[in-house]
């Protein structure tokens, strides 16, 4: 796979938060053999091997069913919760260190942890599918999760790790027919599943409704399933998108990215960034790239991450002739207005300062970004810092 195709496809899969088999399908190596198991055709793992005390383990689950236990996880942070205590509400988030939307959801989950602790609400993040990529062979995945959690200043809730066997993922995600992350399960005070969905699908509202006794689980579940279907539909375009990029059919690839964004502009915002990258590095069309970036400034006016990422693309991708510091400055300035302490915003602003000759200011800001960067951002920020150190 060509470097640009690989970069874009990795971003696509991380964006959709897909399972190990889905990730493997877009790698140079053979796909991972473990397939996500739909609820109606679920495999039965060896229960004796885990000595699982949970009578509900590995059964199909949905809203209204007793929640499976978390027996068998490795607890990375916080008090172990192998069972759900009656009278408490639990927010169980399934995530991975490589999943962009999972990382983007961390601040909201941490806010819920801080704001609702006194109301007997507990937030638990369960890392699954850490071995999703072919490049993960031989990696100490538990250490990667520990390092990631320790690098975050906004991840104070309990964290657990599902080992490479994926028993917890099977018990929860596969049993519920879910193939993408992040996915949150809300567990009510009776230990039943009250809602399943993406944490950015109004999680806080659903939690408030659950606590007030007004949650309409049936309607909420229908909305959640519809959104999950969007993610499935987006991923069906992954293989033809990869082929279009590899064959340098830029118009076709851009059309597919537009189709993905059309499914849900916020959910698939990274595809809009990918389109800008293709306009800069593939088509090398400055006018089209500028027009797309300005439209994004309006569409994603409250999304600091998207604006920051686009600013960096405008400043660093493609030949000098297609780069656009003026437009990048507008995007990075808005990102700084929205999230001035976020490493991503600071990096974008530092790149703009550097491109416009304000080198001392750029160096000072990129140093601050290095201090604020989490493990997932550190590499990109370090690249900018290295350039600005010369």
Contiguous uncertain segments of 5+ residues: 17-51
List SSEs in N-to-C order. HHHEEHEHEHEEHHHHHHHHHHH
Figure out the total of helices: 17
Q: How many DSSP E strands?
A: 6
Domain count: 2
User: pLDDT average, as an integer?
Assistant: 84
Please summarize the sheet with the most strands.
Answer: 6 strands, mixed
Kindly identify the CATH topology of the largest domain. Glutaredoxin
What structural class do you assign from the helix and strand content? alpha/beta
Radius of gyration: 21 Å
Helix content: 40-55%
Strand line-up in the sheet with most strands:
1-4-3-2-5-6
**Strand proportion:** 5-15%
Spatial shape: globular
Name of the CATH class of the largest domain? Alpha Beta
**Straight-line N-to-C gap:** 33 Å
The fourth-level CATH homologous superfamily of the largest domain is Glutaredoxin
Provide the CATH architecture of the largest domain: 3-Layer(aba) Sandwich
Q: What do these coordinates show?
A:
This protein has helices at residues 3-16, 20-24, 47-50, 100-116, 141-151, 167-174, 203-212, 217-236, 238-246, 250-263, 269-281, 286-299, 304-316, 325-338, 343-355, 359-372, 375-388, and strands at residues 74-77, 89-95, 121-127, 158-161, 183-187, 193-197. With 390 residues, the protein is of the alpha/beta class. It has two domains: 36-232, Glutaredoxin, CATH 3.40.30; 284-388, Tetratricopeptide repeat domain (Serine Threonine Protein Phosphatase 5, Tetratricopeptide repeat), CATH 1.25.40.10. It has a six-stranded mixed sheet. The model is unreliable at 17-51 (pLDDT under 50).
């Amino acid at each position: 796979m060509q470097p640009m195709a690989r970069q874009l496809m990795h971003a696509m899969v991380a964006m959709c938060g897909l399972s190990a088999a889905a990730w493997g399908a877009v790698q140079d190596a053979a796909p991972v053999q473990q397939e996500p198991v739909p609820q109606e055709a679920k495999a039965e793992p060896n229960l004796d091997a885990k000595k699982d005390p949970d009578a509900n383990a590995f059964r199909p689950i949905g809203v209204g069913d007793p929640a499976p236990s978390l027996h068998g996880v490795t607890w990375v942070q916080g008090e172990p919760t192998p069972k759900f205590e009656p009278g408490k509400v639990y927010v169980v988030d399934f995530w991975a260190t490589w999943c962009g939307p999972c990382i983007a959801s961390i601040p909201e989950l941490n806010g819920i942890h801080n704001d609702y602790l006194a109301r007997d609400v507990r937030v638990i993040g369960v890392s699954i599918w850490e071995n999703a990529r072919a490049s993960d062979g031989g990696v100490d995945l538990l250490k990667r999760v520990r390092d990631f959690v320790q690098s975050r200043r906004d991840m104070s809730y309990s964290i657990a790790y599902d080992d490479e066997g994926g028993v917890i993922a099977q018990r929860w995600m596969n049993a519920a027919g879910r193939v993408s992350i992040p996915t949150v399960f809300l567990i009510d005070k009776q230990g039943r599943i009250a809602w399943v969905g993406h944490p950015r699908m109004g999680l806080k509202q659903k939690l408030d409704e659950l606590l007030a006794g007004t949650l309409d689980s049936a309607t909420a579940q229908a909305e959640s399933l519809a959104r999950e279907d969007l993610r499935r539909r987006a991923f069906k375009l992954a293989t033809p998108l990869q082929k279009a990029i590899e064959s340098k059919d830029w118009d076709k690839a851009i059309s597919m990215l537009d189709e993905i964004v059309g499914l849900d502009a916020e959910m698939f915002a990274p595809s809009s960034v990918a389109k800008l990258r293709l306009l800069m590095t593939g088509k090398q069309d400055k006018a089209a790239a500028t027009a797309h970036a300005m439209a994004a400034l309006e569409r994603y006016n409250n999304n600091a991450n998207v604006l920051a990422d686009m600013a960096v693309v405008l400043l660093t991708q493609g030949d000098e002739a297609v780069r656009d510091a003026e437009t990048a400055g507008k995007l990075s300035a808005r990102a700084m207005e929205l999230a001035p302490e976020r490493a991503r915003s600071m990096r974008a602003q530092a790149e703009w300062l550097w491109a416009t000759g304000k080198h001392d200011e750029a160096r000072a800001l990129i140093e601050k970004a290095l201090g604020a960067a989490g493990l997932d951002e550190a590499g990109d920020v370090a690249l900018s810092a290295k350039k600005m150190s010369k």
